[in-house]
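hi! just following up on the protien thing from before. the input was this:
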Amino acid sequence: SGANTNEASSLTTFEQAKDLWHSIRDCLRLVKEFDLPTIAMISGTCFGGGCLLACACDLRMASDDAMFAIPIARLGLVLDDYTMSFVVDCIGPANTKRLIMTGESISSAEAQRLGLVHQVLPLSQLRATTMEMANRMASNDAFSLTVTKKSVNRIAGCAALAPEVNDVEVTTAFISESFQSRVNKKRSLS
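and the predicted 3d structure came back as:
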């Protein structure tokens, strides 16, 4: 699942919003830039920050019941270019626009078709297959894995982007009237 929108809707100052966003952004950045390969093992709901975390990983394995969405446009939020690049790297610019601008949720089968997920499995096989993949990678040379990961990230352009590029816009969205009213409306419908 993703971020706690109720917590985010209680923010009132730019500094509070900045602290929240930076903690989210920095965690995602640490996963993306971690030296060794990372694998997301996904079952159930993978929305918002959860989907971004999965995109920050090198590989994504999902159960056949998984659902994916990044509904920030419905909430009036935005992402910085660096974090957005994780999604673009996985599914390309056109599919990123569709996923984020519509806020729609997609099945694991659709996520695999788009390239968001590498493999879809029955839930009963997810853990074993993911661990098998992890063990296969772990049996390889760590230096080779690290250099390969850094090289691919540079070629893909992720390493060239700075997470601070549009930091003010992202932080401002958390305390915007639009976000507050959309979360409150969502809360009242629950």
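Strands lie at 39-42, 45-47, 59-63, 67-69, 106-107, 119-121.
The radius of gyration is 17 Å.
cheers
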